[in-house]
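Objective 1.3, modelling of assemblies. Example input:
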Amino acid sequence: MASESNGGVLLHPLVLWSGWVIGPGAWALHLLGSYLLVSRACENGSMWLLHGTTLVTLLLSLAGAAVAWRQWGRAGRSWPGSGDGEAGRIRFMAVMGLLISALSALLIVAEGIPNFFLDPCL
Amino acid sequence: MTLEKPANPRDVTDSQEETARLERTWHSPGGLLGWFTHVNQRMIGKRFIITAFIFFLLAGILGILIRLQLAGPEQQLLGPELYNQFFTMHGTVMMFFFAIPVMEGFAIYFVPLMVGTRDMAFPRLNAFGYYVYLIGGIVLFGSLLLSMAPNAGWFNYVPLSSKLYSPGYGVDVWTTMITFIEVSALTAAVELIVTTLRMRAPGMSLNRMPLFVWAALVMSFMIVFAMPAVIVSSTLLILDRLVETQFFIVEGGGEPLLWQHLFWYFGHPEVYIILVPALGMISTIIITFTRRPIYGYTALVLSVVAIGFVSFGLWVHHMFTTGLPQLGMSFFTAASATIAIPSGVQIFCWIASLWGAKIRFATPMLWVLGFFAIFVIGGLTGVMVASIPFDTQVHDTFFLVAHFHYVLIGGAVFPLIGATYYWWPKITGRMMSEAAGKWSFWLAFIGFNVTFFPMHQLGLEGMPRRIYTYVEEMGWGDLNLLATIGSLVLATGFGVTLINAIWSVFRGQRAEPNPWGAPTLEWAADSPPASYNFRHIPVVHSRWPLWDWERDRERAVVTGLRNDRREVVLTSILDAKPVGVQVLPAPTIWPFVSAVAASMGFIGIIFHPIFFAIAFFLVAFTLVAWFWPRRPWRND
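Predicted structure (tokens):
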């Protein structure tokens, strides 16, 4: 099973997991990175490291969503059902990847908000 | 072996001779010695379930004793030392020896049936996992009888659990037995992942997998990522206690908070490891008792997967009062509040599925509806304690006790009992009594709320957890008495189900293969299933194969598997296209011997490090016997 075809669209099975992995990966990086950088931010007296972490990981998670969005488009942009053979399954994987990456982006934003309000030294 | 309908469909006829041969091939030996050699997934799954329910009963009795002690002020039923042992054992056994194994047991029993195969990927490993669990549980309970039981709480915080403050063997027993149960859980998780991804019936692509199988898959991945943290932490602790390393000891440069981080990095996903399979059970029951496809299959899968990964980013909310930086904790508040989104999506999909449906209010459905009421209350208090100021106020009070019993009993035990009623006819071939089931539900539902709702108020009034008694002037007596009465009603409710189960095995009405009219593959097997599960591996074309077969009056199956050895079909991960045939190993005693050898090492190390070396060689020897190769020239 080197590749799975759908009307000329070739998507390697592993590529279909990208939205599933990139989003949560970015979110995990954000959570751990931010948590570890709080003491550094207190020492430096500047928040740019924390904001930077949020920005970079947010872009990464959105990239995951974008990849999944493109896959969805290539398999035909309709809501995945249980029929349609391979195209339906590619849609399922892509929509799941899209939503998982989107939720990760939301988590990163939610976790980034306190940086604007709380003092890192408290 | 074909996925599409063949050009010239032919009927499959089974000679009795061939069926008998298949039966012999998958047969599990009888007799006492034979019992220790079983490897078939249904045998092991059933043992996990029964053993876990026995631990549920034992830990439940401890819970009742705790409630009796707290029923009135200044009672002396249990002394402080025994009380500490009891609440530690109650928590540890309920979490590690009941909740995880029972969910694994249901998954081991039903995942292979639901994906339409004959066994799990590594049957002998399955048996090994069970024996390790059984031995661990017996030793832990034995320690209570020998007054050697752990007494530092189910999360065993340092420095209380260090050698200085907890001399004696109690904490050593805890750390060792926890490692046991983790090993057992990891074996089950590995099994479930491989079975789900590679052994599904041809045609069951990922978007057609039953929701319970999705839930079991997510649970297994969570076990794989969460359990190593607690194995590491308990190993570090036992090193601190036995060979005087200083991982958690401040004077030696150690860090007590490291324990809390490691423990809760495991401990919070653990709660969801218990909840996620219960979510799968609820979806399964709702589909069957509304008798129509579930609303929002993709959204439900998404929620389960999202809950799975977000649950790894919440652990610091157990540590809000440890003096960590406020900004650092706020990240975890954000994640804790956000996990309400996928949980909410689940609830709304279920409501939409129930909306306008002709619901059959059979016993399994009642337990699911009870779940809704209780879990929503538990979820609301969960959002409350995700907020740091409120959490600081109620930390270590009975409010927390109320919260997590609402989430765990409401979220996991109610669906679990519902699922037990639902799948009982498949496991035993007999129906449980509906009337007794309804009595059991109402007693448990009322008893549960009478027990745990007053604890919210007690917590707000300031009653702390883990105290063995209180003085009359505090004014906590009435509500505590009410809670104790409730706990007796709750226990009666569960007791009715226990009696119902035992009664039904002998007297229950005989069950059809599909008594509830359910759509998933486990109901295509006999009740109880034959040793080979399915006479022919089925081929599926949608999410609801049994409803398709009912409509089309025909079904597609895989042919060409040999009946004289244990063959199963392997399929591709995404599309479940057939790619090969796997020959599974036959029954053997070696997993049991291996588990005994490993246990010797684990238990012996509490007393002397030499046992580690002895067990190492014994286990190596048993593994050689276990993996002794099949003789290919004999073609068995």
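Residues 24-116 of chain A form one domain.
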